C-alpha cells in the first residue's frame, strides 16, 4: 500500500506517489537530521526531498509517509514495505528503518525518564522553620495571655513578713495606669488591694503552659515529617519500578532487534545462495 500525496502545484487532479527511491531518500534525510529531537526539522527534510526528487511533496505528506513506513516495519509487514526495486534497495530500506526506529526509541526514552525525587532534606528544613516560627508566636501569645489575664480576682494576697508591700487603688489603677503609685492617695480610696511589690504569685504557671504548647508543636511537626518521608519513599519506589519496567522493555527490544537482524542476514544469505545456484545451472546449460 502506497501513501498518496496531493501536489501543491496548480495542475488539476495531479497526485504524487512515493517510489522506492523516494522512500530511501526520505529515510536517509530523516536519519541525518533527526526530527524526533526537533519536530521543526521536518520542514528542512521536506525541502531537501523536494530538491532531490524534483517533486512537490508537502511537509505533512512526508512526515506521515515516514510514520507509515515505521509502523509497517514495527509490524514486520515486509511485503508492503517492498516495492519495485532491487534486493539491495530492500536491504538498505530495512536497515534505515531499523536505525530510525532505534533513534526514535532513544529520544522517547529520554523524554520519559525523570530524576528521582530527593526532597527529604528540604522538607526537614521547612518543618524546622515552621516549628521555630510557631515557637516565637507561642512565646508572644503566652506573654499576652499572662498580661491580659491579670485581674484583681486572680491575684493572691499572700505577703511574707519580710516583703515590702504597697496599697494599690484599683479604681485609679484602671483609670490611669501610667500614674505612679502613691500610698497617701491610695489610702483614701474605698476599694483597695494589698499586692506584693517584689513578687506576685499567680494562680497559673506560664512556664507550664509554654512547655505544653511546645511539646504539642514538636509532636505535630515530627508527625508531619514522618508522613512526608513516607510519601517520598513511596514515590521513589514508584519511580524505581517504572525504571525497572523501562529496562525490561529495553532488554526485550534489544533481543527482538538481534532476532530481526539475524533474520535479515539469513534472508540475505539464502538469496545469495539461490543466486549462486541459478548462476551455476545457467553455466551448466551453456
TrEMBL record:
Stretches with biased composition (Low complexity): 175-194
Region (Disordered): 172-199
Keywords on record: Coiled coil
Coiled-coil segments on the chain, per record: 213-284
PANTHER family named in the record: HTH CENPB-TYPE DOMAIN-CONTAINING PROTEIN (PTHR37558:SF1)
Protein name: Uncharacterized protein
Organism the protein comes from: Hypothenemus hampei
Native organism taxonomy: Eukaryota, Metazoa, Ecdysozoa, Arthropoda, Hexapoda
Amino acid at each position: 500500500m502506497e501513501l498518496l500525496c496531493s501536489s501543491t502545484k496548480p495542475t488539476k487532479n495531479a497526485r504524487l506517489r512515493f517510489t522506492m527511491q523516494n522512500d530511501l531518500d526520505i529515510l536517509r534525510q530523516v536519519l541525518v537530521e533527526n526530527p524526533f529531537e526537533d519536530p521543526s526539522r521536518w520542514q528542512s527534510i521536506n525541502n531537501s526531498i523536494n530538491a532531490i526528487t524534483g517533486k512537490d511533496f508537502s511537509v505533512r505528506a512526508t512526515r506521515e509517509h515516514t510514520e507509515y513506513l515505521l509502523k509497517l516495519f514495527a509490524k514486520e509487514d515486509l511485503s508492503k514495505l517492498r516495492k519495485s526495486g532491487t534486493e539491495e534497495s530492500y536491504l538498505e530500506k530495512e536497515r534505515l528503518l531499523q536505525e530510525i526506529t532505534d533513534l526514535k526509541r532513544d529520544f522517547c526514552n529520554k523524554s520519559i525518564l525523570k530524576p528521582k525525587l530527593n526532597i527529604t532534606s528540604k522538607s526537614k528544613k521547612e518543618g524546622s522553620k515552621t516549628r521555630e516560627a510557631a515557637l516565637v508566636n507561642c512565646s508572644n501569645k503566652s506573654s499576652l495571655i499572662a498580661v491580659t489575664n491579670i485581674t484583681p480576682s486572680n491575684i493572691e494576697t499572700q505577703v511574707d513578713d519580710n516583703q515590702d508591700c504597697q496599697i494599690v487603688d484599683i479604681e485609679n489603677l484602671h483609670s490611669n495606669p501610667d500614674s505612679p503609685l502613691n500610698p497617701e492617695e491610695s489610702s483614701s480610696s474605698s476599694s483597695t488591694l494589698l499586692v506584693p511589690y517584689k513578687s506576685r504569685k499567680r494562680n497559673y504557671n506560664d512556664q507550664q503552659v509554654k512547655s505544653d504548647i511546645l511539646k504539642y508543636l514538636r509532636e505535630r511537626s515530627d508527625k508531619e515529617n514522618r508522613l512526608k518521608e513516607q510519601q517520598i519513599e513511596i514515590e521513589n519506589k514508584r519511580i524505581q519500578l517504572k525504571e525497572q519496567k523501562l529496562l525490561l522493555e529495553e532488554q526485550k527490544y534489544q533481543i527482538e532487534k538481534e532476532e530481526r537482524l539475524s533474520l535479515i542476514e539469513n534472508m540475505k544469505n539464502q538469496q545469495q545462495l539461490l543466486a549462486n545456484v541459478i548462476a551455476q545451472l545457467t553455466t551448466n546449460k551453456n
